[in-house]
Amino acid sequence: MSERVSPPRGFPKEEYQARVMRAQALMGRAGLAALLLTSEAEVRYFTGYLTRFWESPTRPWFVVVPASGDPVAVIPAIGAHLMHQSWLRDIRTFAAPAPGDAGLALLGDTLEELTPPGSRIGVPSGPETYLRLPLADWARLRERVARVLVDDANIVAVLRRVKSGAEVARITQACAIAGRAFARLPEIARAGVPLDEVFRRFQMLCLEEGADWVPYLAGAAGPGGYGDVISPATRVPLAAGDVLMLDTGLVYDGYFCDFDRNFSLGPPAPEVARAHARLIEATRAGFAAARPGARHGDLYRAMADVLGTQPEGRLGHGLGMQLTEGPSIVAWEEAPLVPGMVLTLEPCIDVAPGRMLVHEENIAITETGAIWLSHPAAAEIQILEAT
Amino acid sequence: MSERVSPPRGFPKEEYQARVMRAQALMGRAGLAALLLTSEAEVRYFTGYLTRFWESPTRPWFVVVPASGDPVAVIPAIGAHLMHQSWLRDIRTFAAPAPGDAGLALLGDTLEELTPPGSRIGVPSGPETYLRLPLADWARLRERVARVLVDDANIVAVLRRVKSGAEVARITQACAIAGRAFARLPEIARAGVPLDEVFRRFQMLCLEEGADWVPYLAGAAGPGGYGDVISPATRVPLAAGDVLMLDTGLVYDGYFCDFDRNFSLGPPAPEVARAHARLIEATRAGFAAARPGARHGDLYRAMADVLGTQPEGRLGHGLGMQLTEGPSIVAWEEAPLVPGMVLTLEPCIDVAPGRMLVHEENIAITETGAIWLSHPAAAEIQILEAT
């Protein structure tokens, strides 16, 4: 791998302090004495705690953001060494797994210490969130803590929608890495190569070009289009006339890209060429509409107008610490675009029953309009060797 | 990649039917009229539905296992094409994302159709589970459904502990792939190579050797040992005297391996050589104790006796569709070993304050004792080039 200039890893303490201050301002308005966080992205957003160990479901992890002051981590002992490398200073640990409720007891004590009696504690509960804690433990916690656990008034989701410059730099880097991998696809994909081998080799290209890891790769290949966009690879070899689509979410320093590319095995059928050009036109229309103050629904309409249909699914979404984040680009979404938002534009088109094409790019909203984070594809579908 | 014989992908319908029948027998004893499943492993266990699309948190997914008859899927429309390739025949879809509670309404109707009034529906709620549904939606569902939603009496977790032959074959394959990648580590790791480059290249080796994807890689390197085992890679170059540890959970056909290997950069210090040999001896003692009828706690004690300490953390765990599954190998775990269980043996040893070594192998329990799924490491730590 050739050396390239990459943004530094991790953020300065000030990045997290600013996030906490914004959260605390919103907590004050919502009447919340603390936030209780349990999931990977929520914990990392306020602490910078980055590990793939979340893959193990055994142990719960907690971060408490009080109404004033720094967050407090209440975590299994196995995570102490790494959490002490974060900016947090108050890190409380419990043995896990262990018999009994050691972690819940420590969390309960911490919550009661950090909040006044009778106050309310917000837990992310809205769209796209989940509680990373067994339901039985959740019930125990609610019984144990002499505070009212309520929803977080969507505070964490709303904050995460608007990225800092440092966050946009990571996503831009992830996009650049994926772009280089896509540019090398002709090295690994041609007629006769099984789709699962293309998937495997493409992930290797992503890593070779600088991905930290490749949490997401989907795609499909079929004559003149494909049936869905979320399937794992089959062993069917690519064949002349196929349209191959790969959609990757790779990670750089904890931030995702999420875009795809379509390829034709040999010269495309006229309807495929037209469909691809139409998707690019729709994407450009979405890009042009993506200005501060526009609604997410406006982007949907701009793309749907070009497509000439009203797709039932969304035509894009937020992007950042997770492969997909809110809000969705759907007709009914009235949330306004704000500088710092990072979005995917993802129009789709039906070429024939059971044969679709989907295109996707990543953009960021600035004060003056959108900028491309992925290098936008040309109207002409790329052609791979079919012999 | 050379061609190798791999187990076929996916399971026959009979595999899933047997799982459903076992679940239904336990549901009858627990007085449950249905199971409601929301998470990736739970849904896949009963359907075979395999996709990386779970990386997107936007949409909920539901599978209902009734007291008799086949499971019913209640899923977003985007998943219909892939779910129709599973053995399920009753697949109900809703638009998502969408305003309102379309998915919850369809799920509620389905639950009421499949269960008698006044009955109880089990939801996995115990250790290592989570509800993959926003808390606000969970509250809405409980209000809407005229049934009692209770815990699942640990039925799904208990079933998943005992693997079928087809499942063990997948885990064995994942272990073999990782074993080949570890054998090639000298190609990519030597003094002077930054740890993050080793991580990246090792994931490429895993893919080249046949991994479908690499959800987990952790590791560390430090002089004479390392401080923790869950950190992502730093950019610090490997140096003579370092112990390098890589711990990977790669996936083949939806099943994980989870084991590590330690390497010394140049000849190991005597205390490192001794520690490694002790870890191997402890692993072998755990293996020897791993017979049907033994308790998980017996394995802990067998390993702890060799280590000469009583580590606070666990010394292994279940393994399968997830990187880590229950039960844990801890002193207080009385669950008996049963043929078909797949476990990791994972002893650790402190070489000095802040310097540890961890070793890990994967085994399966058979009628007559344990078998190795990973090819067990030798007592001598492997040596990498230090110049």
TrEMBL record, chains A, B:
InterPro entries: Creatin/AminoP/Spt16_N (IPR029149), Creatinase/aminopeptidase-like (IPR036005), Creatinase_N (IPR000587), Pept_M24 (IPR000994), Pept_M24_MAP (IPR001714), Peptidase_M24B (IPR050659). Residues 170-367 form the Peptidase M24 domain. It comes from Pseudooceanicola sediminis. The keyword Hydrolase applies. This is Aminopeptidase P family protein. Transmembrane segments: none annotated. Keywords: Aminopeptidase, Hydrolase, Protease. The keyword Calcium does not apply. GO terms for molecular function: aminopeptidase activity; metalloexopeptidase activity. Residues 19-161 form the Creatinase N-terminal domain.
